[in-house]
Amino acid sequence: ATTARRKPRRRNGTVTTLRRRYSPPSGRMWSSSTFASRVSCGPCGRSQMCWRLIKWTGFFSNIEAIYQVNLILLGDLEERMKTWSPTQTLGDIFLKMVPFLRMYSIYTANYEASGTLYEELLERGGAFADFAACVSASNLKCKGALLNSFLILPVQRIPRYKLLLEDMLNHTVPSHSDHKLLEEALVTIKAVANEINEAIKDQEKRKNLLAIQRRIGQQLPFNLVEPHRSFVREGELWKVCRKTKKRRYFFLFTDLLLYGEETSTGFKHHLHIGMQTLHVSDLPDSDGLKNSFAIESSRKSFVVIADAPEGKSGWLTDISKRIEEFIINKNSFHTNRTGTATPTFQAPVWQTDGEVVKCNICSDEFSLINRRHHCRLCGLVVCHTCSSQQIYIAALQEKLRVCAHCYSQQQGAQAATPSSRLRRCQSATTATHCIITRTREIRKAGDGCV
């Protein structure tokens, strides 16, 4: 008696659910070829030409393939319902078809572009505007719906499948053989829905990168649009250069930091720094520098200033997070045998020209003839005579100009005067922090040179 009561409940509930959740409104479950045949002799007289335009622009994306999958799924469900029995199952049909539903990600990713294309063609008027008006005519059985209202229907299909399986589970007792199959199908369809959502996010990332690349122009020496890269933030910062502060525009991505300047002819690219050598450090406020922080890398290191404390904290947080994520991802794929980090060269923050009037080594005053030069290892300003040596940096695979003290230190000399504390740094990273600390000490003492 119990089985007799459950049988009509399961059958009637399943049939009602299938009809309510699966069956589309009249005239809306068409393939593009069926749609084309219905509009081929429309009253506007231009339907064939418009249809060729739609096919050429990929207006409906991969709707033909989606339609074929749904057609097979519907046929299997109808055949199973014809031979219905108390032990009949439907979950196995969905389990078989769910992998093919991933093709919805292609359509969903193209949906926004199709909507934009529709609006653009409609604004142009002419043949397409007449064609769009024909679509809502009564002879097409569209019930007055506009063409763009059909574009959203495939996007809504996967969530409707999820609701369909949930309703079917509600009408199936746990002891029934189909209950486990429906549960597995529901889990799988949820996974497909998540994959489609991720595909949409990836598409948005690519669109943002393409927009930035078009905005920057052809100035970049590399391709900005990469599958692993996404945009994080952008904004202006003051960069402390060797002579003065200059306004620079920065772009932060998940794997690199890029900056340049806005010119009358467009964006001019200056430098891009990968996360593998990037490091940021907070700098306390002083009389000359407020809301500042240091950006250090193997290629170049410098100090930047934000307009407000919120901007400084935002940049520091976002950059530090990207560096941390990069290190985690790198360690998960590449781990050296000893398990320790591989040392890399870190360029120092350059001492600004205005802070010194004489060479830090020989104390000769600078002039039009005796020019300033920066040591690429410690960042100090020295004269030409005291910076005539070069050292090969393996990390950069090039020779760099260095001061006499750094050259002697690299050659194994042990002699160092007490006053050269800043230049006795054992690594470029340590040198960077020594320069910043020493500069602050000098400013507090009121001295004009180092």
- Largest sheet at a glance? 7 strands, antiparallel
| Low-pLDDT residue spans | 1-8, 21-32, 36-43, 334-343, 413-433, 446-450
Order of neighbouring strands in the sheet with most strands: 4-3-2-1-7-6-5
Give the overall silhouette.
elongated
Helix percent band:
40-55%
Number of helices: 13
DSSP strand tally: 11
What is the terminal separation in angstroms? 99 Å
**What is the average per-residue confidence, as pLDDT, rounded to a whole number?**
75
Strand-residue proportion: 5-15%
Provide the gyration radius in Å: 34 Å
Order of H and E elements: HHHHHHHHHHEEEEEEEHEEEEHH
Look at the helices and sheets and give the structural class. Answer: alpha+beta
Outline of this structure?
The chain is an alpha+beta fold and 450 residues long.
Characterize the structure shown:
This protein is α+β, with helices and mostly antiparallel strands. Helices cover 46% and strands 14% of the residues. Strands 4-3-2-1-7-6-5 form a 7-stranded antiparallel beta sheet. Strand 10 and strand 11 form a beta hairpin. Helix 1 (2-21) packs antiparallel against helix 9 (153-170), helix 6 (104-124) packs across helix 10 and helix 9 (153-170) runs antiparallel to helix 10 (177-216). The longest helix has 40 residues, at 177-216. The radius of gyration is 34 Å and the shape is elongated. The chain starts with a helix and ends in a 5-residue tail after the last helix. 22% of the residues are buried. Residues 1-8, 21-32, 36-43, 334-343, 413-433 and 446-450 have low confidence and may be disordered.
